[in-house]
Amino acid sequence: MQKPSFEHIFMNLALDLAQRSHCVKAQVGAVLAKDTRIISIGYNGPPAGTHNCDEEWPETGCARDAKGSCSLALHAEENAILYAVKNGARLEGATLYTTLSPCLPCARLIFSAGIKHVYFKKSYAAYKGLPFDEGVEFLNRFGVTATQFE
């Protein structure tokens, strides 16, 4: 019997975590790992203890910002990074597994946190109708390997 790779295990966990999201528009999950160990997990949604969009605005979700994104939510990558930092984890050299490629602001955060590799399942650009993945381009340009997970 062939055992699944850690990459598959972590991406499957990210996919499962996405189901925890309270967003009515998109459900995204993220796993931060290093040396086959999970550092942190996250999914998109508002800061803990504030509200749940699917309960407060079940038909429309929370208000949108000028770019059509949730105005009240943290992205899955942000939640995973913030939780790790809050608990004193070192992210230098870590790998991020996420169900949606990082947007540009998340890409800047990923780069600044010292994360060295990002695997993503689906394209943020395709989801948003953008011509290309700005976040992926940024990461690859500045030395963080960002690749679509097959």
Automatic annotation (TrEMBL):
The keyword Nucleotidyltransferase does not apply. CDD domains: deoxycytidylate_deaminase. Residues 5-137 form the CMP/dCMP-type deaminase domain. Coiled coil: none annotated. SUPFAM superfamilies: Cytidine deaminase-like (SSF53927). Its cofactor is Zn(2+). Zn(2+) binds at residues 75, 103, 106. Belongs to the cytidine and deoxycytidylate deaminase family. This is CMP/dCMP deaminase zinc-binding. The lineage of its organism: Bacteria, Pseudomonadati, Bacteroidota, Sphingobacteriia, Sphingobacteriales.
